[in-house]
């Protein structure tokens, strides 16, 4: 496979040619990550799925021609080193990193377990920072590279029932914008994607709609791919949501916003269907317990 030259057109409507590009997607076993892996593979990229659920990641990769998978704990720098060593040995240096791994527990802040708080911040923030730290230096040395950090509209819009998740995604957006400035001029572009409510397991049991529009994982994957063309600093999905919220912040008085939120039902994350969400919450609790145990070693 020929090496990717990293020279993609800015503007226009033509999709970038990813033939020869080595693409790493974290949290790629399910949802947005899996949809992104399929889309990038269709564009000719050598796709590597990194996920803490290695068996599910391997199963997902088997359904994508040419894709690879490996275990990756994004919170652990040693895990990054081992995973990227495998990627480099098999396919070459990373051209595109999609920092997608994330967790989204919902509910009242005062009842959130400390282990859950730690998991949210370590996966959603530290995991993203670890990914950039592990890949950007090599990109800078080669003079080209592309990083997409999947944040959330929860990184701009505070939503009841998501307090720690809000904090993590505000941080993810800030880190993305900071890295974009720090590496400006090196040939490495850092872009942030801010999906609205996405129909994945993360939102299971929650009543979607209301304050935020809903989108499918494939919509987010398409937006991630499009950043290779636009190099936009921040892209919401749908694209109008972030600019629209910026106008609300600038011109709408808080009492009016409070009424609009009440009418739109923005407290839905405080009242989820626990039985419909049980499979996801059980998995998150297992990961949180294992993460807390590992931290004490």
UniProtKB/TrEMBL annotation:
SMART domains the UniProt entry points to: PKS_KR (SM00822)
Record-annotated Ketoreductase domain positions: 21-201
Keywords for the protein's UniProt record, in alphabetical order: Oxidoreductase
UniProt GO MF annotations: oxidoreductase activity, acting on the CH-OH group of donors, NAD or NADP as acceptor
Pfam families per the UniProt record, alphabetical: adh_short
Record family assignment: Belongs to the short-chain dehydrogenases/reductases (SDR) family.
Name assigned to this protein: SDR family oxidoreductase
Organism annotation: Tsukamurella strandjordii
């Amino acid at each position: 496979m020929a090496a990717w030259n990293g020279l993609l057109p800015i503007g226009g409507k033509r999709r970038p040619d990813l033939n020869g590009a080595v693409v790493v997607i974290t949290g790629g076993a399910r949802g947005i990550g899996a949809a992104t892996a399929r889309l990038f593979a269709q564009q000719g990229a050598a796709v590597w799925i990194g996920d803490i659920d290695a068996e599910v990641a391997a199963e997902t990769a088997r359904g994508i021609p040419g894709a690879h998978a490996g275990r990756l704990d994004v919170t652990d720098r040693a895990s990054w080193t081992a995973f990227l060593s495998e990627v480099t040995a098999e396919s070459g240096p990373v051209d595109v990193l999609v920092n997608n791994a994330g967790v989204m527990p919902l509910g009242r802040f005062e009842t959130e377990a400390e282990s859950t708080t730690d998991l949210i911040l370590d996966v959603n923030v530290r995991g993203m920072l670890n990914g950039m730290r592990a890949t950007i230096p090599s990109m800078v040395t080669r003079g080209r590279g592309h990083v997409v950090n999947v944040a959330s509209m929860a990184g701009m819009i505070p939503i009841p029932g998501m307090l720690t998740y809000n904090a993590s995604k505000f941080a993810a957006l800030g880190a993305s914008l900071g890295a974009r400035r720090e590496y400006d001029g090196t040939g490495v572009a850092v872009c942030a994607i801010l999906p609205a409510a996405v129909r994945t397991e993360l939102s299971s049991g929650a009543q979607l709609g209301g304050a935020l529009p809903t989108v499918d994982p494939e919509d987010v994957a398409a937006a991630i791919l499009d950043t290779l063309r636009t190099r936009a600093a921040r892209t919401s999905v749908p694209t109008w949501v972030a600019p629209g919220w910026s106008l609300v912040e600038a011109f709408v008085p808080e009492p009016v916003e409070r009424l609009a939120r009440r009418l739109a039902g923005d407290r839905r994350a405080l009242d989820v269907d626990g039985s419909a969400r049980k499979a996801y919450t059980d998995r998150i609790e297992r990961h949180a317990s294992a993460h807390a145990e590992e931290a004490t070693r």
